[in-house]
């Protein structure tokens, strides 16, 4: 049974946990960060942050520019490509088709504990402006269209503790029509539409688009996403 698990449990290794947290902070950042920035966000002394960064740098997981600011390193791309490789391989052509057809960023999200995490993302090729949705981006699974689409595949008893009756009713109502919509829930002014992607032997997932405005009706976009979900399921033998 799929279960949403809390990330608040005490880590077995504080050093490893801090190193992973650095990677998460850098993935969420819009620009390279200084060592002082990272130390402050991790609530550790600068020397501790520096030692962690040196180890991550040795493995190519982070890199420093000429000013000493830190960003994710090239090795992270190779590691990310290996996560659910077959799912990403089958999803990317569909994400690309949808992105270019509607001029919207299209992405694949999966469940990680109590968060919705972007696994793969494609921006439209010729759009005047598009919304960036970087792989590794995460937010609570209780917010946003892809999160709610994922929750529709999770037994109610395993939802996060903060899921109230209003959210449960909203997810139930949207499940009956087969698609989910959100506005201003994760990032102000942005809209999202998502459909659930249920695959045998895998955790719950969703395909979604994110955009500012569109001439396309939400139901039209949702129908196209549903067709892509069906193609991915068929390609993976589901």
Report on this structure.
With 238 residues, the chain is an alpha+beta fold. The protein folds into two domains: 14-78, Arc Repressor Mutant, subunit A; 82-235, Beta-Lactamase (2-Layer Sandwich). It contains eight helices and eight strands; from the N terminus they run αααββααβββααβββα. Strands 5-4-3-8-7-6 form a six-stranded antiparallel sheet. It has a two-stranded antiparallel sheet with strand order 1-2. The protein starts with 13 loop residues before the first helix and ends with a helix.
Summarize the structure.
The protein has 238 residues and is α+β, with helices and mostly antiparallel strands. The chain has two domains: 14-78, Orthogonal Bundle (Arc Repressor Mutant, subunit A); 82-235, Beta-Lactamase (2-Layer Sandwich), CATH 3.30.450.40.
